[in-house]
């Protein structure tokens, strides 16, 4: 007996390890015979359900006995077998789940509850002595185990019998499938029968026949049930079927009964109209007049009942991967629409590499090609002919090609063509009528072609089944603002005497007006830019772009600095803030301008100490002017210096003040600019010049940082 | 019998334990033989074939218009008239529910609600509410799928942005575009499959860093390639003076030979990546000028995107370039537009930002549509989180500010298999909490991958001993927005 017990308990260990592996692994790769054993899940699972429930009364009585009593032994064996069968049920269940499609959430819960139950019972097997010696705790443990079992098996029941299986309200889900409606479809088969199959036949079928009514075939339906014939041909008001449908849902006789899937208002109307029309089995949709309500209802009901369209499946076979690979180049890309899809798309790249042969060569995959994209390629009318070789072509992109529309009629050979893009071609309306006869065609894109709005209107009225898309047409009354003009070489703000400045605007036909005196140019004020502006001194160009049909641009302002006298070296007397000292002292004389707002580059920023730097020069020229290029960005606490002091002399120990400037402080308007400050100094032949620009010590009251220190940012210093 | 029972219980000892453990380990070994690679990992990188959509994709390409800095949902698409009614009143504690705030407003004594200073009206057949700042987006609202219930875990820009782009806040994972390139491969071998375009707005800005378009642990082939915002979007593309195309070709052939030898010896896969990158750059010399030449754009195109589109480095120019790149088969075009961080001065900044992006964003939708490309291109517009319904700092009669708000914000998607003309999800009257259909960042990623024909749970890469995916261990596909 002990041997037996040990054998089973050891087997359980092995099985539980397998169970855990199965629970985490993807089982779909297991051999088929193994997955087949999953079918034993329903067979085995009922054993632990009973055994777990047995445990509770058994332990209740066993507690009162001593540990060597027969009840204790029985209890141990019951736990042993409960564990075994729970484990087996879990393993089979996991295998079964791998094979079938169940509601994901429920399945997950069921799976883990099942696995937990197996683990918990296994624990009980070792803890049985403890259960019996701890009266209350032991009972709680067993009842919890039963709880897990009940929850798990309830979910199992929901999986096999449906979510609402365990409820008083018995509702069923629709299962009817609607065929494609054509003129030759029978009204009965196309719409009536599927509704019955979905909402009536579960109770009125060959087996069930509630009320003696079988609704599965036309003949049995026409026969009626115990209450009488189902309808009075031509009179829906007197017909039993429509009467039952129309009753108050609370009424006992209302059909379908309360809690079951109800017919929609359209479906009820369909039944009425069908009975009104004689309730026949053989009337075809095509025989009904275009204006017949019944006809419209058939389409409506069938459309509404259709399941969402699944991925398109293709019937043609796949091309060999070798063929596809041999055709693939960087300039002709052939890709399956998806993994293992036989359908191919062909797309061409780089117009200079394109030649018409590249399309013709695709004849070996002509069956499989469903998309061709020639967008932007120099494809002409002649090339269109080789498109007719693709019988399954669905989507064609000819945007920006050089076709004139002449040979478009060859595309009628593509019987599956749904969408064709012809934007930015020289196409005219005449060519399109040839396309309109393709029955599958749904969308044609015609933006930026010779086709006019009027043409679109006439095409739409003539061929309403096709969407003729004209695309964006600018609103004539909407005026847009031009962008401001800019200098041709934007990065170059430091020029030599005699160099010239060109102003540019990206839009052709735009007039540029500019001023050099600080006044504001507009459509009439300022010089029209025709010839280059020669560089002289410090040049501040304000310019505006104007054009008819557009609103004039904002005024752009650009400052140009002339190259100054070269210095030999420069040293920073006060260190800038470590965050804003990327290029160090040389930034001041490197002839590279900083960009407004981009303070990480080319700029030196000072806050704790004022800007103070010394410049050595050996020039023989007289120096009479110093220009500092400073940032102004009050939002970022960057203000003009409160004062600029310039000292000069032969060396740092022999200097005197030669110039001073107190810049004007900005107001509340936010600014973001680079502003030059010119300081006139006593002319002289200096060897050493020291510049100090004191940052603002207390920000003004209107500023959000009022009372704090402001910054001074310097990017370049010029001497003239 | 009694002795046997005693003996049995005594057997539950070390010896018994070891026997059982041996049994357990043995069966574990046996069990794992059934699943060769699954339990302890395999050499195979991904559970699915790479380079192709796993199932029929609804979208082939993505253009992601990232609004960096987080535009306020309350001034864009989430209309909350109650805030105007309760303007200045304190945010009820029952709404805030002890929500963590950023260091910028956590110490504020009061949290006065602030209504949008911009008008809202309904547009299109969907009747979606759009702020007056975005008249052009409003005109294409029937093509948009507005999601009002995005929510994120991060509360500051950098982690939030990194989370949105890489699925993790730390910044060491591959970006969305890199995953896309890894999973779907390139359509056009002459261009990178993942490109990044940057523009700076006029509002309060936040930085972008290259970690946002990193390939992470994926091959560096999948890294986002940043196009420069100057006149030459790709620098150093021309051959140096005195070198013609043939000599360039010869040089590359020779170099590839050396590199191949190095690969033989060292075996670093990055060497192969480098060879391929050189080859692609060579072909880019022809492919890029075709794309970036704006001189042939028609007047209508310029009006569609707005005249800014001719000025390199602007958002509008990037939108136009994005359309051209996408049309030429670039799988993922990522734009970043900075300047949406409206802590103060919201009324002005928001207006300027809207001016810069409204026309071009809507223009992009219209342009893709009129070329028949919208159904295969997924366009996404949105920021990294939302903004608070209460004012940061004091309410000023003309201006106000909003702090970061991760619990709900609005983004939109268009084209590529999303339902057009719908508004998904509901927020409460205060625009603070989500009432119905929340969409987490992982859900967003799962959905985008699904639209591209990839099951997000199966696009994996093994790194540091475990498999990673964009959605890591979370994410549910939001079926409600898929057409």
DSSP strand tally of chain A: 27
Helix content of chain B: 25-40%
Q: CATH top level of chain B?
A: Alpha Beta
Provide the structure class of chain B. alpha/beta
Structural description of this entry:
The complex is a heterodimer of chains A (720) and B (483). Chain A has 16 helices and 27 strands. With 720 residues, chain A is an alpha/beta fold. Chain A has five domains: 160 residues; 119 residues, no CATH class; 149 residues, Leucine-rich repeat, LRR (right-handed beta-alpha superhelix), CATH 3.80.10; 81 residues, Immunoglobulin-like (Sandwich); 156 residues, Jelly Rolls. In chain A, a hairpin with a 7-residue loop joins strand 1 and strand 2. In chain A, helix 1 packs antiparallel against helix 5, helix 3 packs antiparallel against helix 6 and helix 10 runs antiparallel to helix 11. Chain B is α/β, with parallel strands linked by helices and 483 residues long. Chain B is 34% helix and 16% strand. Chain B contains 13 helices and 17 strands. In chain B, the strands form five sheets. In chain B, strands 1, 4, 5, 6, 7, 8, 11, 12 and 15 form a nine-stranded mixed sheet that branches. Chain B has a two-stranded antiparallel sheet with strand order 2-3. A two-stranded antiparallel ribbon of chain B has the order 9-10. In chain B, helix 8 packs antiparallel against helix 9. The longest helix of chain B has 25 residues. At the A-B interface, helix 1, strand 1, strand 5 and strand 8 of A face helix 1, helix 2, helix 9, helix 10 and helix 12 of B.
